[in-house]
Amino acid sequence: MKIFHNTRHAEHSGRQEMFRGRLVDCHEVPQRLQHVLDELARRPVGALVQPTADLPLDAALRQVHSADYLDFLARAWSDWVALDPTNAERDALPSVWPLAAKHGFRTDAPPLNFAARLGQYAFDSGTPLMAGSWAAAREGAACALAAAQAVLGGERFAMALTRPPGHHAGPNYMGGYCFINNAAVAAQALRDGGLQRVAVLDVDYHHGNGTQTIFYERSDVLTVSIHGDPRTEYPFFLGHADERGHGAGEGFNLNLPLPRGTGFEVWWAALQTAMQAVSDFAPQALVVPLGLDTFEGDPISGFKLRSADYLQIGRAIAALGLPTVLTLEGGYAAADLGVNTVNVLEGLRG
Ligand code: Q9C
Ligand code: ZN
Question: What pTM was computed for the model?
């Protein structure tokens, strides 16, 4: 197994996120990845490698994100500082949104004011952006692309061990701690590498809204997500069971929402349903957005999985018998994230 490690991840290090009227300390912190690396040093289940510099990364990014959004991300920090030079001391967070477009506000005259532009491209105020965010997210996407290429080259398992995570990022928006949808980059790269059908099995606590949206009208990429019920859980506005895909993509999206408080037995039954859907689709490769925030000790989530359960999850994923790319998504019990992540990887090896 190859584990592509994002050596630039720590350049993205948010201070605070807005939560219910207060700024609270960020949950998505560099120490998360350090804990995984520490555990990999104790249990070396795969080869830690880095993506090479010659990957066609910009082309791969444009396959899943709009050009204007990528341009926005690339310039966001300098635009934020240009808005007010003292902004250099603060993370960028949006505070105004064009939501009212539904009620007659105009979208045909995009604002020049960067605070307003931030609101055009971000769906929450929990995703701080700073000087190194773009470099970190870009290198993470390179890890996802390299992992896909490793699998295309015959590797059975490859992981993008990266942060910031990606599965909430859509074609033209950021949010949920995510900027670039690494799982979508990997799935699309597998398609572009010649595979006809690719399945995505998202096991993060939160619905993979970005990945679902990117592939919603397509029949060549099946998206399946097991997650907290959006009626009570983030991201709230997508992830319901009746979202089955649209147009050519109808029947190629499956959501399995579960109530807050769900334990492993019920979660495991949903995984069987998800895996049956994956098998029925007969894909040539699998992408697993691997969130470990289903853990009982997660500070912002509501499922009750235990560390040993992640070994079983790894074994189940391996039993699908598919070349598989994994991307690290959520998991905010940082001190347990190493053990839980490496348990999945150990489970993959049988
Ligand atoms: N104060 C991922 O797991 N809202 N994103 C949390 C807690 C945002 C999670 C509020 C959760 C985003 C990749
Ligand atoms: Zn999550």
Answer: 0.98
